[in-house]
Amino acid sequence: MASKYAAGYRGILRELRKSLDPSRKVNTDIKSHFRAVVENARQHPSDQALVDLDNTILFLKSQREHKRLLERYNPLHDLTEPERLKATANRVGLNMPKLHSDPLGQPIFASPDTIVVLKTAAHQLNTLHRTVVFPTETVYGLGAVATNAEAAAKIFATKSRPADNPLIVHVSSLEMLETLLPPGYEYTKAYRALIKHFWPGALTLLFPRNSDIIPNIITAGQASVAIRMPSHPVARALIAVSNSPLAAPSANTSGKPSPTKAEHVARDLSGKVPIIIDGGACGVGLESTVVDGLHEDGNIRVLRPGGITVEQIRQALEEEYQGGESVPKVLVHKRDYQDEEMEAAPTTPGMKYVHYSPAVPVTLLSTLSNPPSGTTRQPVRSFLRQISATRPHPPKIGVLAPSDSGIWKEIVACEGPSWHRFALGPISNPSLSAKRLFDGLLTLEAEGVDFILIEEIAETHEGLAVMNRVRKAAGEMVWLDYV
User: Fold this and answer.
1) Distance (Å) of CA 259 to CA 77, 237, 436, 445
2) Which of 24, 54, 105, 340 has the smallest number of CB atoms closer than 10 Å to its CB?
3) Residue limits of the YrdC-like domain (predicted)?
């Protein structure tokens, strides 16, 4: 019996040695701990004690194998041409609540792997003038140095993006922002309020363009430039390490849904980008809100709804304007005002071209908004049976809808099609619907559905941004009713 315990102890020491670099020795305190555990088991022998020893060895072996696999798939290993960097969520510091800096403003990293990954990416950006895919809190971005026209041109080529579709510039600090603005520029009170409340975060502001710094290609020749400071620690750290503002639209072929996971990017742009930094799923899931506060009337115009809601913007302005001051109005493009001239020559992305469309047809199921005059609502069940009969049989139909929608019960009652379900979250939680929308579109597309049905949600809070994307993605709209 004693020899079995001795063998167990030797097995533990063997696994501990294998887990270390050959130049290092096992810590004596750890050795003493395991020796005491084994000695106690020897003095009180039992079958369970031997099982516990075997499980200890198995655990140490599993830990060693886990470490080996992490190193094997570390993004710094096996870089090929074109290089593709994939950094795991833990390695890129996603647990940091904010970007920590030293007194000189340089980011502080908990892991040495993180800084090496970011310096490798920065080399691609600054020295080779190539693009890099990186995570933000909104969607994954395809970045290039914003002050370099040659580098920015590679964004347009990679995405097949129209040249008159401007880019958003990303900065890591207010100091970097100020280097991009015209000399002597002063923030308006409204902009100071929005920056105070929402930066870093999913809010983009239009500023006057300094033509000596920002190339024409970034703004599509417009007199303003869209700039934001992302809150994602990896995005801000990459910008800080690069010491360069990054122009970065979503990292997808132009017109397709924006990627919210690294695998979305890999499926779409594989072979077209040198580096993908994998930071896990994006927390917001929709692009940033774009605001224009440059008009003489002082009002805030929301050109593109996004991760920061109109309600949040309005509340922030009301908090900052006190003592009878006139609070700027918050106007939403196409809801509160029209600007045909800007739509023809947009100052921000997402205003002119078809966007967010997967490779299969999308139909919007309107169950909330009023139908056009003369249009009668159709029962949901009748519509589902109709499309089941008229499509190639049996069709594969993708459905995106709130998790507590009545459509799921109707689907169960409609036999024949192969239903592919993707719940957007409860009706009461539009922020979750925002986070899951693009993932749902891309997931259903990857599952090979013939077409996708998306149910309408209320256009309040994040629902405004969700429906902005859905209406652009949908090629057809039908008005339905639950009866």
Assistant:
1) 25, 20, 11, 13
2) 340
3) 115-308
Closest residue by Cα to residue 397 from 370, 375, 373, 422: 422
Helices (H) and strands (E) in the chain, counts: 16, 15
Amino acid, single-letter form, for residue 340: E
The reply to whether 362-481 shares the fold of 112-344 is no
**CATH superfamily membership of 112-344:** DHBP synthase (3.90.870.10)
Q: What is the pLDDT of residues 423-460, one digit of tens each?
A: 999 999 999 999 999 999 999 999 999 999 999 999 99
Q: For the whole model, what pTM was predicted?
A: 0.77
Q: Which two tokens stand for residue 247?
A: 């122009």
Asked if pLDDT for residue 253 goes beyond 70, the answer is yes
Distance CA 81, CA 52 (A): 48
362-481 folds as Rossmann fold (3.40.50)
Q: Which two tokens stand for residue 329?
A: 């109005």
Residue extents of the structural domains in the chain: 2-72, 112-344, 362-481
Distance CA 48, CA 105 (A): 56
